[in-house]
Amino acid sequence: MIHSSVDYEIVLALSRIAKTLKIRTVAQGVDTLALKETVTGIGIDFIQGKAVDEPKTLDSQRTNHAA
Hints:
Elements: H1 5-20, E1 26-27, H2 33-42, E2 46-47, H3 58-66
Parallel strand pairs: 1-2
């Protein structure tokens, strides 16, 4: 998305449509800080990817929530 103006415009348009419909958006595969800043600037509500945290196994998630 950072290197493609077409991808950027598609994400921007989808974000605007979602906001109009009061639907929250999630960007997946946000693996760099530059991409994180870009989607945040567009108004995406949530992000997933290595820029936020490394992937974890389901077992580690269950252990962390049980404590």
